[in-house]
Amino acid sequence: MTPATAITTAPLDVAALTRAVVEATPSSALPGVGAVATFIGLVRDNNLGRRVLHLEYEAYEPLARRGLDLIVEEAREHWPEVRMMIHHRIGRMEIGEASVAIVAASPHRADAFAATRYAIERIKQIVPIWKHEYFEGGDVWIEGATADPDNADAREKAMRIACA
Amino acid sequence: MRVTVRLFARLRDITGAGELTREAPAGASVGTVWSSLVSEFPELSAYERSISCAVNADYSRFTAAVADGDEVAFLPPVSGG
Fold first, then answer.
1. How many domains does chain B divide into?
2. Chain B window 30-59: which residues touch A at a Cβ cutoff of 8 Å?
3. What is this model's ipTM?
């Protein structure tokens, strides 16, 4: 069975993840599903004016997995009818490869869109995963947010962005 | 007591190891472990204000006490997605 959250070195299979979200929906709720939204993060060929060659992702795996679980829980708290799965890939990835896949199924599209947006914003805030960017002329660790799951301001900011 | 220190991304590059074993005095906090690590690797001090910490793979605070055998992780600002 596909786990709701995963940190994996294997290429992400978005179609399989989408099927898994639908299959994990209880049969009583299934006829009520009217929307599935997916967000897929890809490795881009440029960043801050640099020509990116490839990325290497590193994670503190047990805590990263817990972080993803927490995000799924937070989403369920806010959108009780949304069913969500998040898989994040780590290791070396080439341009155009998927680094993260978020799938949300819900009765209506607004919640499915909002929940996926919320999840990607929260991933960037609290999940201990790091990008090592190899670009033309060098390499650099990308450093974004200081991770603090208890920071209510960060959580509210993610919610504002999701519901904008 | 002995603690296992886990370091990631640029912190791992600075120390040259993703995992270190260090002695810590009785009653040490996460902050104590960090401070002695900074004395050993002064370049880490640049991260003083931006790192997060975890004890046994759960987010923690610098004031939290550590126990013998704990895994203490220091996390630079994250950049997943």
1. 1
2. 50-52, 54, 57-59
3. 0.96
